[in-house]
Amino acid sequence: xxxxxxxxxxxxxxxxxxxxxxxxxxxxxxxxxxxxxxxxxxxxxxxxxxxxxxxxxxxxxxxxxxxxxxxxxxxxxxxxxxxxxxxxxxxxxxxxxxxxxxxxxxxxxxxxxxxxxxxxxxxxxxxxxxxxxxxxxxx
Length: 139
Description:
Layout: H1 3-10, H2 14-22, E1 29-30, E2 36-37, H3 42-54, H4 59-63, H5 73-77, H6 83-119, H7 127-138
Antiparallel strand pairs: 1-2
């Protein structure tokens, strides 16, 4: 199949598909006219790559599960090839996501506290007006 059909069947953009190919996650053959031609298994591969990216994995992380990428999603989730390395990758990525979530929670708490402080004396005023007034007095 050509890149347009692969894009349509997977929901990935042509640009993403070319990127996956450039990164070694996907392979295409060239037709006589130079157009990319993909095997049917490329559909599963692109869907799995998209799912992993959506879960927060990087291209380098995904390279570790390359042997499993052509599997249907249900089979892919149970793939045992290199399972120790894959598990370590997933656990490492989860730790990074949890650290980022904790950082965002701290940012949120700080913003909530600042908003509460600004609103304390002016509960009826729209927040935008309160923030502009605060910025003007601190400038």
